[in-house]
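User: Watch each token:
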Amino acid sequence: MIHADQTVFFWINGLAGHVSWIDNVIRTLSCDLFLPVVTIIALIAIWFSGRNTADRIRNQLGVMCSLASMGIANLLVFIFNAILPDRLRPFEAFPDKVHLIFYPPTDPSFPSNAAAASFALAAGIWVYNRKLGYILSIPAIIISFGRVYMGIHYPLDIVGGFAIAILATGIVVVAMKLCRPITDWLLKQMRKAYLA
């Protein structure tokens, strides 16, 4: 499995460093700011969108689930980083073979925090609105592919981040079902203040 992981990594990372404008586009789209900011703007738009009150409430519950899932995913990545042995990042393990076109992160390679957070944002929306969830998965896929392309993650790191995102979203969905009266009350108060 590790051999296949490294083979796929070198195939994807081998594309880097040949065409500078492609490298620049992928670096921009996969950086720590660009797509996360775009995703947050999309979540704000989703929060206030809906053809009727029921749609708007469904979208708002999706945004709440999305943000909570991202928070839980980040917590799970922190826990896994504390208990799992550190996996060297590709540019650390193979310094002479990897095309590193991004700054070198210092945290462990597995699981990918960027993948966990971005897929958790998409999965939280997907639970309540399939179409919007699929749309938000596009930035998550771009970020995840870009992290491998730039030489800072193996594909298996991305798969681990995705699995954590799904686990985190499942935890949040169960919690939100148990706390539905509280979320309904909270949304009602926010509507009174014109925040929902």
